Structures are given as C-alpha cells and as structure tokens.
Amino acid sequence: MFDLLGVPPQVLFGQLLLGLINGSFYALLSLGLAVIFGMLNVINFAHGALYMIGAFVAWLLLTKLGLGYWWALGLSPLIVGLLGVVLEKTMLSRLYKLDHLYGLLLTFGLALIMEGAFRHFYGVSGQPYPIPDALKGGQNLGFMFLPNYRGWVVVASLIVCFGTWFAIERTRLGAYLRAATENPVLVQAFGINVPVMITATYGFGVALAGLAGVLAAPIYQVSPLMGTNLIIVVFAVVVIGGMGSILGAIVTGLGLGLLEGLTKVFYPEASNIVVFVVMAIVLLIKPAGLFGRER
Amino acid sequence: MPDGATVKTTMLEIRDLQAFYGESHVLHGVNIDVRQGEVVTLLGRNGAGKTTTMRSIMGIVGKRNGSIRFQGKELIGMAQHKIPRLGIGYVPEERGIFSSLSVDENLMLPPVVKSGGMTVPQIYELFPNLQGRGTTQGTRLSGGEQQMLAIARILRTGADLILLDEPTEGLAPVIIEQIGVAVRKLKQRGFTIVLVEQNFRFAATIADRHYVMEEGHVVDMIPNDQLAQNMDKLHTYLGV
Questions:
Q1: Which GO terms describe its molecular function (chain A) (predicted)?
Q2: First CA to last CA across chain B, in angstroms?
Q3: Which residues pair with A138 in a beta bridge?
Q4: What is the value of pTM for the model shown?
Q5: Is pLDDT above 90 for A223?
Q6: How far is the C-alpha of B7 from the C-alpha of B33, rounded, in Å?
Q7: Residues of A near B (CB-CB distance < 8 A)?
Q8: Which of B191, B92, B198 is nearest to B149 (CA)?
Q9: Contact A187 B60 (CB under 8 A)
Q10: Each residue of B150-181: pLDDT tens digit?
C-alpha cells in the first residue's frame, strides 16, 4: 500500500472517518444552536445538556420500557423537544425584553441543574448502549473498514441537516421563520402568531440536540458529562460559521470535524486546540463568521 | 361597493386613543373616523403622533387605551396577530422589505386573511416594475420598487383597510407619481386607505379628507374640497 507523507492510509482514513463522525455531531448541534440563536437571540447553553438528555431518554426507554433504538430515534427528540417547549414557555420567554446575557445565564444554569441531576442518579461512569442489530458489522471499502453504524450516523445527520436547511431556505414556513428573525414585529402585524413560532423554533432546535444524543448513544457512552465535553467545540463551530447562519453551521461543523481528524494524523498534539485556533483566525479576519452577515 | 350617493358606513372609529412608549405618553385622546371606501390622510409635523396612531391600530405600541373599532369590533385588548386577520393591511414607514427573502417570498409572505384579494397578475398590472424580479433579494430593489412591493404584498391578503405610512418618503417625483396612480386605482377598487403623509401636495391629489395632528391630538379635519379656503390655516399647522 502507498503512504501519504509517511502515514499509512488506514490511519489517515480511519482518522478522517472519526473526524466525519465528530463533524456530524458538531453539525447537528450547531445547526440547532444557529436556528435558536437566529430566532430567539438566545445563546442556548443548555444545548449540551439536552443532547445528553436525548441520549439518556434513549437509554431509559431501552432499559426501563424495552423500547429499542428505532423507537428512541423517534421518541427521544420528541420528548426533548417538548421539554424545550416547556422551558421556553415557562422561563426563557420572560427574558426576551432583557439583555441577551440573561438568556445565556438562564440556560447555563439550567444546563448545570440538568447535568447535576443526572450525575446524582446515574454517576459519571457512563452507561453502555448497544448498536441496533440492523446496523451491526461493517463494510470493507478496500482502503479502510467502515462500521455500518458510523456510516449510518454520517448519512442520517447529513439528511437531517440538509432537510432542515431546505425547510428554512426554500419553503413558505421557512420564509416566515427568516422574516420573523429579521423583523418579528412586522411579521406579527401581518397576522402571524410570532410567540408560537418562537416556542416551536426552540422546541425544534433542542429536538435536534435530542436526536444527536440518540445517534451518539451507541458510539460514545451515555454519560451525564457527554454534553459538556462536546458543547464548547460546538460553540466554536457556531462562531466560526457565523451566528445564526444555517448553512454556516452545517458546513463548518463537518469541515472542522474533518480538520480535527487530519490534525490527529499529522500533528496530534494540536488536535484539541485546532478548532479554537481556527476560531481566533476567523474572528480576526471576518468577525461575523465565515457565513455570517454583519449586523 | 356603495356609490357616493348612499351613506357610507363607518369602517374605523377611533375614540379618545391614548398611547405610550414606555414612560412617555405619545397620543392624548385621538378621535378619527374613516368611512368605507374613503382615503383619509393624517397630516402633521414630525412627532405629532401620526405613525403612532397607525401602530396603535395594529397593536404594536407599548400600551394603548381608549377605543379603536374596526367594522364594529374593538381592537384594544385583542391579541396582536388577530388584528390584521380582520382585514387590516399595514405598510410601515420603513417599508419592511425582508433582506433574507426574495421578492417573491416577500410578496407571498403575509397570509391571506379574506377572500377577494388581488391576484398576482393583477398586482403586476398595477406595479409593472415588480414583474420578472421574483428571485431578486428583496432589499436589492430600488427604494421606489421596495415601496411598491410593500404595498403589493398587502393587496394579496384581501385586507380592505390599508394603512400606508409615508409611501412617498425619499422617493423621486416620477416614482411618487406612479405610487399616486396606484393609490387612486386602489381607491377605485373600493379599498379604504389611511395615509400618513408629509408630502402635502401628494396627499391633496388622492385624499377625501385630511386629519391634522399636533402633539398627540387631532386638531382639525379638512375635507379635500375645502382645502383651498383652509390653506393659510394648514400652513400654520404644518409650518411649511
């Protein structure tokens, strides 16, 4: 076999796949954050905790009710979405008239409470979640071995991301959403119930986090801290992509996952910080982010 | 539509309207009547409360009290998003064209609230400039075209009362003329129009009556056919 810069292809492609998987989660999570930030102007610090709850709901459905992966894939985002609707209705909606900082502080506090509660009941060691039977095994692609489940995660997250992009950028409902992001008062003056749209948007954004949690459960363990570990990178992705930019979130999420994978191959020492280095450079050159618009 | 000979019914009746932005009390007891099929202007200097009166009708000011009745229904206390659904279309002063939406998306954005709205071909006939611009980003249109789009999107909804806030502001005379032609055509179609205008000469060519506002009150009402006799008074009010 050939070598690339002294790196065996199995290692390179293995890391690229890992990067693509991580990128899929970055994309799904930063997409939800972007949708929420665009509409609510809230930086949703509870996103990582809701991702963790998505995974835990899947695990609880399996261990308490015997409902498997495919059930969880539908039910868990629904439950997390409903939880989001309740949080928005009872708490977040009271803060819109105040500085954005209050929304950030509230969601940060909620994240600490949610993670603390799960840590109290389930500890930090993590619970295993089995790969569903239909997705066990893998494919030999010649240059590398692709586990079926990982391929599925990449495909599923791409479908969800681009489906969401299409719904927002190309449909009538999406036009309402974009318009209300720009000028909610006027959209309301056309007879559209904007507060309901805002609640639904938050619910949808966190449901994406819940979905990411279910997809992650069989790969990473189900642990109360799984969200905390991921969310800092995801925030960097959102900043690089441009706050509130849908396409920016998706493309940057996948791109940075791959970049991280490559860094692990060629300069592993930098792999944990490469995202933040990119963030610093982007902020210096284009403060609104790669896909962001100056306000 | 009732013709001029019959008594026209009151469409909009504003009584003792008070409005506030935070602590500041902006409207102090505004009284206005608009009959079906009329074009009525609100004249006055900057800060007289014309735009606030319109925003009060739409329910988008901080706090308001008094009474605003549209076709007999009280608007004060009604949920904001239900007011336009009664058939009131709002064209804001800043035009409110959405930059993240194409011209078509802007045009199709306001939901249809009643049957009998204009069709898209009829709208293009009224505003030929908009035709063939569908995929252009809304805010890339010229100021005049944006104004036309802001009016056009309301015509689709079936609203029968249209609130036009300074449609000629910042536009070239030739564009103002086009807007004037369009507003006259809308009047012929039976639309009822409330117009806020600084451009008094424009207002005189299309309105039936003029309400003059000063410091949050209506201080005078001048029918358009008695305008000539009242020019001196009007000049004093408007300070022109």
A1: transmembrane transporter activity
A2: 37
A3: A147
A4: 0.88
A5: yes
A6: 14
A7: 172, 175-176, 178-179, 181-183, 185-194
A8: B92
A9: no
A10: 999 999 999 999 999 999 988 999 999 999 99
Beta-sheet pairing, B209-214 with B39-44:
parallel
For A138, counting Cβ atoms within 10 Å of its Cβ (0-12 exposed, 13-18 middle, 19+ buried), the class is middle
pLDDT at B82: 94
Reply yes or no on domain B10-238 having CATH 3.40.50.300.
Answer: yes
Residue B1 has pLDDT above 50, yes or no: no
Q: Please state the domain extents for chain A.
A: 19-227
Q: Name the residue facing B111 among A178, A186, A190 (closest C-beta).
A: A190
- The number of CA neighbours under 13 Å toward the Cβ of B208 is 16
- Assigned token pair, B22: 């935070």
Burial class (CB in 10 A: 0-12, 13-18, 19+), A282: buried
- State how far residue B228 is from chain A, nearest Cα, in angstroms: 37
| Cβ pair A189:B80 closer than 8 A | yes
Residues of chain B contacting A35 with CB distance shorter than 8 Å = none
For chains A and B, what is the number of CB pairs under 8 angstroms?
55
Q: What is the ipTM of this complex?
A: 0.89
pLDDT score recorded for residue A3: 63
Whether the CB of B117 is below 8 Å from some CB of chain A: the reply is: no
Chain B residue with the nearest C-alpha to that of A191: B81
| Farthest CA pair distance, chain B | 50
pLDDT given for residue B91 in this prediction: 95
* Residue B59: both structure tokens together: 């329910």
What would the mean pLDDT of A218-232 be, rounded to a whole number?
Answer: 90
Banded model confidence at residue B22, pLDDT cuts 50, 70, 90 = confident
Q: Where are the domains of chain B?
A: 10-238
Query: A197-211, B191-205, B224-238: which has the highest mean pLDDT?
Result: A197-211
